[in-house]
Amino acid sequence: xxxxxxxxxxxxxxxxxxxLHLHGQVTVDLRVFIEGxxxxxxMNTDLNVAGYIPLQQPFNTMPWNYxxxxxxxxxxxxxVTDWVLVEILQEEIIGGEIVYSVQLxxxxxxxxxxxxxDLDGTSLLLFPINLADFYVRILHRNHVPVVSAVTLTEVAxxxxxxxxxxxxxAMGDFDSQNELAPGIWGMIAGDGNAxxxxxxxxxDDTWVSQEGFIGYQSADYNLDGIVDEADKTDKWxxxxxKGFNVPATYPVPMECGEPFTDARDGQVYNTxxxxxxxxxxxxxxxxxxxxxxxxxxxxGIIEKYCYDNNEDNCATYGGLYQWNEMMQYENIxxxxxxxxxxxxxxxxxxxxILNNYLGGAxxxxxxxxxxxxxxxxxxxxxxxxESGFTALPGGYRYINGGFYFQGDYGYxxxxxxxxxxxxxxxxxxxxxxxxxxSYELQTEGRSVRCLKD
Length: 453
Prior knowledge:
Elements: E1 2-3, E2 18-19, E3 24-31, E4 33-34, E5 38-39, E6 42-43, H1 46-50, E7 80-94, E8 97-111, E9 116-117, E10 125-129, E11 133-139, E12 143-144, E13 147-148, E14 153-155, E15 158-162, E16 170-171, E17 177-181, E18 184-189, H2 200-210, H3 229-236, E19 248-250, E20 260-261, E21 268-269, E22 271-274, E23 277-280, E24 288-289, E25 303-304, H4 311-317, H5 323-326, E26 343-344, H6 348-357, H7 361-368, E27 396-397, E28 403-404, E29 409-413, E30 422-429, E31 435-441, E32 451-452
Parallel strand pairs: 3-15, 4-18, 8-19, 24-25
Antiparallel strand pairs: 1-19, 2-11, 3-10, 5-6, 7-8, 7-11, 8-9, 12-18, 13-16, 14-15, 17-18, 20-21, 22-23, 26-32, 27-28, 29-30, 30-31
Helix pairs in contact: 6-7
């Protein structure tokens, strides 16, 4: 594990304790100001106006090393000030000291009024997580973040917290926030190297080397698009010596072939490396079971069918999902859908890469199917499972609410987009070794395999 130890007292990040519902998704409404671009009662959007904010999240380099693939085709609205990184942490005791283990990470936009919003610029942040209590940490690329002083309170299903109303809203009080205007508080500017401390390195190593540069620069402490004297004298100089640090641990990146734990429900999945692709070696089984006679809906709850309405079948063969439910009602080819964070719904092309690596669709099915007759019906033609994919014949849920062909067929949705009610899936039969490209009605229930980002 990568571990940050104490620098001053705790951490330079926004950390909030949340109480959660199990097996659900938590909606979070956060408000925080960053000092650099703050003017009177809100923040400027100079980087946005100038077109300097990148379309891809900017935290994929050191020291954040965040590998999320979030990207937008355009900055969603004129109120966006910048990107921030949000982390879900859980409190642990290690060696008699409190540390915080990072469970989930995602980026968000910070608007000029301090609101944090999802990539569409308007939606609240949604976290698929299964923890009784956890903290949220928000990092900006050149500000010292803050740690919340109290737990959040749920009102009508939303956990809200406003950091701007006082120094005591954050751990560390005056060490973690500055008063930006009478009664308005925000994160401290000038942390150009993002080490949670404002010191000479932020001037000598960062500001000096970038002076005169324009664009999206780490030494642009007031976020006006140019690194100049104002960044040093107005933002960095008054904050020298300030900083706040929480010890946090980052899990060692998963090695493909090792079991993976889904943080949403604690379920463990085997994984397998096939060529350059890391696949789950089991069918996805997430969500609340609904009867086969029910239609899935966009209700904020992941729903699944279990063959013959029997949960034991989900435990063995995974859930069966309608296409829109699998995609979580977002038509994003290769999107996350109902897969865990840092996994996604494979596109048709990605299935094609798998087929080609295994010798082509005419033989790849046999190399993907679990061998023997424990789950597949005889003759299970050509089944060797030499790939380690371990495809199972989960059957499917038909539009009449009935379940058919468990033991005979394994259907796997793709996230391939096409118009109409039919979507593409891959189909394995018990009577041949072919991986069939199949066109299926999207309201039927099929199996899901996730692919690592």
